[in-house]
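Weekly structure sync, notes
Attendees: PL, DS, HV (note-taker this week)

Item 1: NAD-dependent succinate-semialdehyde dehydrogenase
DS walked through the input record. Source organism listed as Microbulbifer okhotskensis. Sequence as pasted into the shared doc:
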Amino acid sequence: MLKFQNYIDGEWHDAADTVDVRDPANGELLGSVADGGAAGAEAAVAAASAAFPAWSRCTAGERATVLKRWYQLIVDNSDDLALILSLEQGKPVAEAKGEILYGASFIEWFAEECRRAYGQTIPTHNAAMRLNTIRQPVGVVSCITPWNFPNAMITRKAGPALAAGCTVVIKPALETPLSALALCQLAEEAGLPKGTINVVIGSDAAGIGKVLTQDPRVAKFTFTGSTAVGKLLMSQCASTVKKMSMELGGNAPFIVFDDADMDTAISACMATKFRNAGQVCVATNRIYVHESVHDEFVEKLRAQVAGLKIGHATEAGVTMGPMIYRRAVDRVQELVQDAVAAGAKIEIGGEQLANGENYFAPTVLTGVMDTMRIAQEEIFGPLAAVQKFSDEDEVIRRANETPYGLAAYVMSENIRRANRVVEALDYGMIACNTGVFSTAVAPFGGVKESGIGREGGVEGMAEFYETKYACFGV
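Item 1 (cont.): predicted structure, written out as tokens:
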């Protein structure tokens, strides 16, 4: 499954140039992948466009059968897929294995869900007319996916698109292309027809992006990444009025009330803050703890952080690996220095580790203020920034004072309070008394500048259909 060529129209393609893929833990070369560029993207779009009519005419059952085979091959090869993912991305193998199975669940869910693409018979307004609707696939779908979940962010997009009868073109992150190519190998073995799934890797992000957002043969564009890049891609999609799904940046609040179960709150915080070295779009960004339990929370959090084992993804017992590249480490260091200069205190960590150039110590800061950069920007690193609050209305106001609205977390044993706060927080997803909530069966997405559209659940399937209305005179 270790491939180094682009996958277009069911064939493996070399290119004149290549890009190196390196292990972020030590910089070792894993291989050189064909640099497809804009020309590769155009060829992939052409292949997907040519394959669409036949794939879209397959019955839902026929598509489901192929996708179920793909799902099973992913599960059967999950150990190898996890190793590939760990080596190119850095997360521990056990964590990578979890991503593989999580990613596979989207293929399974949407393979089943596509059988339920129901239309409607509408009660008529005129006795001489009959009104109904049908749901049809949108067409060619282009995807740009990030490096932090190089398997699951593909299956979460390609799964519903293919199940609906669409064909797909994927540009994976330049840092982590090997997981995408391995998925193509298994898709080919599962029997996905030529051209239904295509992957183009390239260093010319702007050139490839323009093809995927502006080619009129592409009907839908879906992106996971930063808000700044998402805005640019949205503007490019406007030229051909494409359907879009955008899962963008976040600034997730984690609110611990005085009636919270402290062990539950600490466990949830660790899960959402330090998974994948904090490089998760729904990772906790601002930790608000009621002043009466603040010191207890910080003490227990510091003890848990001290127990993390840092190292290479393949080392036994490792619970946190490296960050993806040096500039990510440098940025987290800058956020720490800025906060400390403004009065924050380092409780543990706060510096780069000697393991390698991409390791940053898991860190807890206290005395953080809303005006600091660390509270205004998405951290995307292993850095827990703790603040105090005194009452419910205050913390809701502070939590909502951000242009982002992806995920939020509420820790409280008071069911009435929990419901009030969940309804008051301006976020697309809210987890109460847990730090892990994403699943194939529920919608995933944000509000405000955190994106548009949803992935997962029945809402995720609807993103890849058009509703056609028909009126018959009788």
